[in-house]
Design brief:
By secondary structure, this protein is α/β, with parallel strands linked by helices. Helices cover 48% and strands 10% of the residues. The longest helix has 17 residues.
């Protein structure tokens, strides 16, 4: 205890504050000191901490709880040495860099389910069949994946009827098996900006909070189908989300548009936000290739 008091006094002195006996006593009297037995063999406190660590991991990753706790311990020592230079977003980014996927904030569980349901419905609207055959467009889907290695914004372009939306659908479904997705399409996007979408979802947070939460398991994607057909009110909602996506590491934006979108008239997407995301080369969809016809 003497060492604790002396260390506290030294910190006050180093900060240029009063550090006489009376000041130290009055300050310590306002603190609540919690004692943990992390260093004891078979520590109940450490077991509880590991159990808490398991609760923030997806069910399939809960075997990593001990490793997560060890990582958090190391980060706590690093943060203490730097005077507490982490907020929640920075901590989540640190953990993602160490290949931990997080389950997301429990407060947002209901809205995550609503976003996932809306994405399923929007993708179900997209017809990717010709007769009884489903068009997988595996080569094109792979091209979208490759494009995302060069930027977080990818356009799938092509003339009407070549299957742009089908490629987006297959890529979104593939992404949805590993990450969370948001899908916006004409007629299924609330008009009037983020405030309208927030009201429809029954969400009381910000767009950034929602998008950041969707990326806690490592990555997420915003899919916008058929840019040519959004009305003015829907465009405001899309633009609000695209702007917020810029500040969310791990969030990509994939859109479909006709080949001449943004050529005959300026694109309605926010240029500064798209540039900040990093424009990947567009993926151009032409007629079915010979390999796709045979498959």
């Amino acid at each position: 205890m003497r060492t604790f008091v002396q260390t506290f006094r030294d910190h006050l002195r180093d900060a240029g504050a009063s550090h006489d006996d009376e000041t130290v006593w009055k300050t310590l009297a306002r603190l609540q000191i919690l004692v943990f037995d992390f260093t004891a063999a078979g520590s109940a406190t450490e077991e509880l901490a590991r159990d808490r660590a398991a609760q923030v991991l997806p069910p399939e990753d809960r075997a990593k709880a001990a490793s997560l706790w060890s990582t958090l311990t190391d980060l706590a020592l690093e943060v203490a040495a730097n005077g507490g230079d982490r907020d929640r977003a920075r901590l989540v980014a640190d953990l993602q860099a160490k290949d931990f996927r997080l389950a997301g904030d429990r407060r947002f569980e209901r809205v995550r389910a609503a976003v996932a349901e809306a994405a399923r419905h929007a993708l179900a609207d997209i017809d990717d069949r010709v007769g009884n055959a489903s068009l997988g467009r595996i080569e094109r889907t792979a091209a979208v994946h490759a494009a995302l290695n060069e930027g977080r914004y990818v356009e799938i372009r092509g003339d009407a009827g070549v299957g742009k939306s089908g490629v987006l659908k297959h890529f979104a479904e593939l992404s949805g098996s590993q990450a969370r997705v948001v899908v916006l399409s004409p007629g299924r996007t609330p008009a009037g900006g983020w405030s309208a979408m927030r009201s429809q979802l029954g969400f009381d947070g910000t767009a950034r909070e929602l998008l950041a939460d969707l990326t806690t398991d490592g990555a997420a994607a915003l899919f916008v189908d058929n840019l040519d057909s959004f009305d003015d009110g829907e465009r405001r909602t899309v633009n609000d989300l695209v702007r917020e996506a810029v500040g969310i590491p791990g969030l990509s934006v994939v859109v479909t548009a006709r080949r001449n979108f943004g050529v005959d008239e300026p694109s309605w997407l926010p240029k500064s936000a798209v540039d900040a995301l990093g424009r990947a080369p567009p993926v151009v969809i032409d007629d079915l290739s010979s390999a796709e016809v045979l498959s």
